C-alpha cells in the first residue's frame, strides 16, 4: 500500500514539512467512512517561535498599516478565490464524513463569514486604522479639553486553535475579524480534519492575495505554542472545556497578558412550549429542528441540541415523531454514496468516545427510545450493511425520567445523540436549562408570547443565543445550530465564557481600547475626525466646490442669518399638513413648559439650514444621503434669526468607487449664539472635479 503523504504546514510564507526521519512517528489520519489512510501528520522540527515572530514582524508590517476598508476588500477577494475552487474543498470534506449539506455549512458558511466581514468593514468601520469607540467626553467648560476612546490594532499574532468538526468555517470565522482588525493569524486546526484546512490555506496562498506574514498554518501538534506567546498576542480556542481550562491557566494568559477566548462543549437545550402539541406548526418545527441537530455533521456540533425539554406527558409523542422523521428522512452511510443524508463521525476514536458517553448516559438514568446502533449503516437502497473501517453511529435519542439526573446535564456525547426530559412549569423548564452550566444556544418552540417571554427572561443569563421558533418565522429561521457572523457566538460558564463573531464586536476583541485626552485640535489630528473647537478653515472656495482630493478636515462655511417669521411657520404648516398645536396655537403652546409660545417646526429649520449652506451649482457633491445624530436643542420663535456653521468632519474615500462619503458637522444657532439644532450631514462627493 502506498504510504499517505505528509501534510505540510505553511510557515513564514512557505510550505514546510518534516523529513521522513522526523516523521517516523507521524499520526495517520484516515477516511472516516472507509478507514483508508488520507494523510500523515507531524510537526517534529517545526519552529513555532520563529513562526510567531514572523507574524509579529513581517505580518504586522504588511497588514496593520492597511485601513479597515483595504483589509475588507482583501477579505472579499479571498472569499471569491475560495468560491472559485470550493469544489476541491467539498471533495476533501467528504473524506471527513461530511455530507454535501454538512460541507455547505462548513465551506460556504466559512466563505460567507468573509463576505459578511468584508461588507461590515466597509459599511461600519472608517477608512482608517483607528476605530472610535463611543462619543466625545467634554472635560472642560470651554471645550478646550476633551476625551474619547479609540481602538488600535494589537501588536501581536492571533493564534487560532480550532476543533475538528468545522475545518473551514472554524478557521475563517476566527480569521475574518482578526484580519479586519489588522492582526496576522496563525491557524492551528485539529489533526483529524486538518487536511481540509490546509487546502483552504493553500488556495489563499496560491491566490497571491495574502499580505506577507498575514496567515500561517501549523498542521499537527504545537505543544510549545503557548510558551512563546506574550503581551499583544491573542488566543481563540474551540474545543473541550478541559483543554480550555488548561490553556487558560497557562502562564502566558495568567502572567503575560495574552488575551484568551474560548468556545467549548455545551449542553444546549431546546424547549417545547405547552401550547405546541402534536399537529401544531410549532410541534412540527420542534421535531424538524431536533432531528436536524442530531444528524447534521452527525451531531458533531458544539451548538447541537443535547437536551430536548418537553412538557409533562409529551415524551412519547416527541419520541414517536423523531423516530418517524428519522426513518423517513435519514440515510446513514458514506457521504459520497447517492441518497446518504448523514455520514460517519470524524474518526473511529471519536465514534468509540461517543459510544462510551452514551453508556454513561444510560448508567445515569437514560433509556434509549430511538436508535442506538453502531457499526451498521443504512445503505442508499434501504438495506443494512456493515460499516467496515467506518466511524458510524446511528441517531440516538434517550429519555430521562428524572429531570435532576446529573448525567443529563453533565455528559455530552459529541455525536448524533440527544436526550428527552419533561418539565411541569416554566420555572422548572428554566431550571433544567440552567443545569447545563452555561450554553451556546437554547431554542424555544412556542406561539404563546407569555410563556416565551417568561422563559426567555429566565434563561437568557445562561445562554449566548436564544432562538424563538414559531409558525411566523419557521420558514425563515436559520435554525438552532447555526451561528451567524452578525450575532455573538459563545456562551457563559461551561460554554467557555467567550464571544466570537457578533459583527464588529469580534473585530474589537483584537484591538486595544485606549482613552485619549487632549485638545480638540490634537484629537482631530489623531483620529481624522473633526472635533468642535479644533482648527477650521473658511477660506474660499465653498467646501461644496471641492472634490474629495481637495477637501480637508475642518473646511468650513458659516452662513448668513435668516429671520424666522410667523408667515414662514404657517406656510410650512399648510404645505406639509403638520399643524401640531405648538406651531399653530399660541395659548396651547404657552401652556407647554417646553415652549415660550408658537415655535417653528424643527424640519422647517433644517430646510432653511440647507438653503443657507448649500452651493446649488453642479459640482463634486453628488448626493445627500442622510442625517445622523439630529437633536433639537432650543425652540425658535417668530422673529428669531438662524445661522448655520457647516464643517467637514470626516472624509471616507471608497476604495472601489469614484466617490467617497463626507460627514459634515452642522450646527444651527440663533441670534444669541445658542445652539438651536445640531446633526451630522452625510453626502457623497466625487474624488475628482467633474469634467467641464
UniProtKB/TrEMBL annotation:
CDD domains linked to this entry: ALDH_MaoC-N
GO terms of molecular function: oxidoreductase activity, acting on the aldehyde or oxo group of donors, NAD or NADP as acceptor
Keywords assigned by UniProt, alphabetized: Oxidoreductase
Stretches assigned to the MaoC-like domain: 554-657
NCBIfam families the UniProt entry points to: PaaN-DH (TIGR02278), PRK11903.1 (NF008868)
Family membership noted in the UniProt record: Belongs to the aldehyde dehydrogenase family. Belongs to the enoyl-CoA hydratase/isomerase family.
Protein name, entry field: Phenylacetic acid degradation bifunctional protein PaaZ
Organism, scientific name: Agrococcus sediminis
Taxonomic path: Bacteria, Bacillati, Actinomycetota, Actinomycetes, Micrococcales
Gene giving rise to this polypeptide: paaZ
Amino acid at each position: 500500500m502506498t504510504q499517505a503523504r505528509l501534510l505540510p504546514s505553511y510557515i513564514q510564507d512557505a510550505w514546510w514539512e518534516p523529513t521522513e526521519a522526523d516523521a517516523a512517528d507521524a499520526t495517520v489520519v484516515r477516511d472516516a467512512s472507509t478507514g483508508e489512510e488520507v494523510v500523515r501528520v507531524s510537526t517534529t522540527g517545526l519552529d513555532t517561535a520563529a513562526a510567531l515572530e514572523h507574524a509579529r514582524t513581517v505580518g504586522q508590517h504588511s497588514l496593520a498599516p492597511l485601513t479597515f476598508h483595504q483589509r475588507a476588500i482583501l477579505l472579499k477577494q479571498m472569499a471569491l478565490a475560495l468560491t472559485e475552487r470550493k469544489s476541491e474543498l467539498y471533495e476533501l470534506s467528504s473524506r471527513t464524513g461530511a455530507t454535501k449539506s454538512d460541507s455547505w455549512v462548513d465551506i460556504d458558511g466559512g466563505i460567507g463569514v468573509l463576505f459578511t466581514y468584508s461588507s461590515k468593514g466597509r459599511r461600519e468601520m472608517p477608512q482608517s486604522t483607528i476605530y472610535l469607540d463611543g462619543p466625545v467626553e467634554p472635560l472642560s467648560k470651554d471645550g478646550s479639553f476633551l476625551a474619547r476612546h479609540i481602538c488600535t490594532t494589537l501588536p501581536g499574532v492571533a493564534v487560532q486553535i480550532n476543533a475538528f468538526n468545522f475545518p473551514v468555517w472554524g478557521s475563517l470565522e476566527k480569521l475574518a475579524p482578526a484580519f479586519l482588525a489588522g492582526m496576522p493569524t496563525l491557524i492551528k486546526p485539529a489533526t483529524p480534519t486538518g487536511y481540509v484546512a490546509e487546502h483552504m490555506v493553500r488556495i489563499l496562498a496560491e491566490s497571491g492575495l495574502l499580505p506577507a506574514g498575514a496567515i500561517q498554518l501549523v498542521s499537527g501538534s504545537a505543544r510549545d505554542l503557548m510558551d512563546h506567546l506574550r503581551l499583544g498576542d491573542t488566543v481563540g480556542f474551540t474545543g473541550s472545556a478541559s483543554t480550555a481550562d488548561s490553556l487558560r491557566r497557562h502562564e502566558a494568559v495568567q502572567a503575560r497578558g495574552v488575551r484568551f477566548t474560548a468556545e467549548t462543549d455545551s449542553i444546549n437545550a431546546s424547549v417545547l412550549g405547552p401550547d405546541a402539541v402534536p399537529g401544531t406548526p410549532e410541534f412540527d418545527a420542534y421535531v424538524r429542528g431536533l432531528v436536524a441537530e442530531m444528524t447534521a455533521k452527525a451531531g458533531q456540533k458544539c451548538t447541537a441540541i443535547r437536551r430536548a425539554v418537553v412538557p409533562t406527558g409529551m415524551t412519547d409523542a416527541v419520541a414517536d415523531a423523531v423516530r418517524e422523521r428519522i426513518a423517513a428522512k435519514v440515510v446513514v452511510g458514506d457521504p459520497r454514496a447517492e441518497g446518504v443524508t448523514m455520514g460517519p463521525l470524524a474518526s473511529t476514536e471519536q465514534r468509540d468516545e461517543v459510544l462510551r458517553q452514551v453508556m454513561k448516559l444510560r448508567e445515569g438514568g437514560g433509556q434509549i427510545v430511538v436508535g442506538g446502533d453502531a457499526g451498521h449503516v443504512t445503505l442508499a437502497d434501504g438495506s443494512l450493511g456493515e460499516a467496515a473501517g467506518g466511524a458510524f453511529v446511528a441517531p440516538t435519542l434517550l429519555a430521562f425520567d428524572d429531570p435532576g439526573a446529573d448525567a443529563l446535564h453533565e455528559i455530552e456525547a459529541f455525536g448524533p445523540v440527544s436526550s428527552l426530559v419533561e418539565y411541569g412549569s416554566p420555572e422548572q423548564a428554566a431550571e433544567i436549562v440552567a443545569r447545563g452550566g452555561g450554553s451556546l444556544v437554547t431554542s424555544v418552540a412556542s406561539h404563546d408570547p407569555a410563556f416565551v417571554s417568561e422563559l426567555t427572561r429566565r434563561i437568557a443569563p445562561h445562554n449566548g443565543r436564544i432562538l424563538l421558533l414559531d409558525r411566523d418565522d419557521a420558514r425563515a429561521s436559520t435554525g438552532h445550530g447555526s451561528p451567524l457572523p452578525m450575532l455573538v457566538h459563545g456562551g457563559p460558564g461551561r460554554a467557555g465564557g467567550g464571544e466570537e463573531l457578533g459583527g464588529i464586536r469580534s473585530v474589537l476583541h483584537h484591538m486595544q481600547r485606549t482613552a485619549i485626552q487632549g485638545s480638540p485640535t490634537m484629537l482631530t489630528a489623531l483620529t481624522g475626525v473633526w472635533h468642535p473647537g479644533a482648527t477650521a478653515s473658511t477660506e474660499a472656495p465653498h467646501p461644496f466646490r471641492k472634490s474629495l482630493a481637495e477637501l480637508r478636515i475642518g473646511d468650513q462655511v458659516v452662513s448668513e442669518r435668516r429671520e424666522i417669521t410667523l408667515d414662514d411657520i404657517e406656510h410650512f404648516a399648510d404645505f406639509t399638513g403638520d399643524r401640531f398645536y405648538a406651531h399653530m396655537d399660541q395659548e396651547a403652546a404657552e401652556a407647554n413648559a417646553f415652549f415660550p409660545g408658537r415655535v417653528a417646526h424643527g424640519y422647517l429649520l433644517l430646510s432653511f439650514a440647507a438653503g443657507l449652506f448649500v452651493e446649488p451649482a453642479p459640482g463634486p457633491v453628488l448626493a445627500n444621503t442622510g442625517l445622523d445624530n439630529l437633536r433639537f436643542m432650543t425652540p425658535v420663535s417668530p422673529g428669531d434669526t438662524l445661522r448655520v456653521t457647516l464643517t467637514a468632519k470626516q472624509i471616507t474615500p471608497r476604495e472601489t468607487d469614484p466617490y467617497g462619503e463626507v460627514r459634515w458637522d452642522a450646527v444651527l444657532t440663533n441670534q444669541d449664539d445658542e445652539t438651536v439644532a445640531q446633526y451630522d450631514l452625510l453626502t457623497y462627493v466625487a474624488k475628482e472635479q467633474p469634467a467641464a
